[in-house]
Amino acid sequence: MADKVRAFIGLGSNLAMPSQQITQARTAIAATNGIQELAFSSLYKSAPMGPQDQPDYVNAVMAIATDLSPLELLKILQRIEHEHGRVRNGERWGPRTLDLDLLLYGDQQIQVPDLTVPHVGIAEREFVLYPLYEIAPDLTVPGKGSLSDLVANCPLRGLQRLTQS
Asked: Is-catalytic flag, 86?
């Protein structure tokens, strides 16, 4: 793994059998050339962030080693979303079959038109922080501090673990 970067991907779904969507996305990501799965969190159930008239989400976090660039990885994640029926209609925080977010890419801080890393909101989102902490408790989030401090300051807001990884 000398020339590979450790990255973290957030997975979420609240339509069309969400747990199955997450499992299939995990398989698709791990089967991609240039990506090796390192760890996968339990599945978690969380209330939707936006409009409340939609089903609860199922979320997880995946750790990978990759030699893909951040933008190459983003394109692959967006392709997998599309293959799972994700429609980008401009609606923010609406229901979706699959949402794949590049949360962290090594210790890099990236701000380009199509990508911000660490992911915007990573420090406040329980459905990201708790699964991330499960698989990488000693992590430091670039520009945000230690993951353990972020988790300690983030209420659960009803987050429930559904499965053990």
From this structure: yes
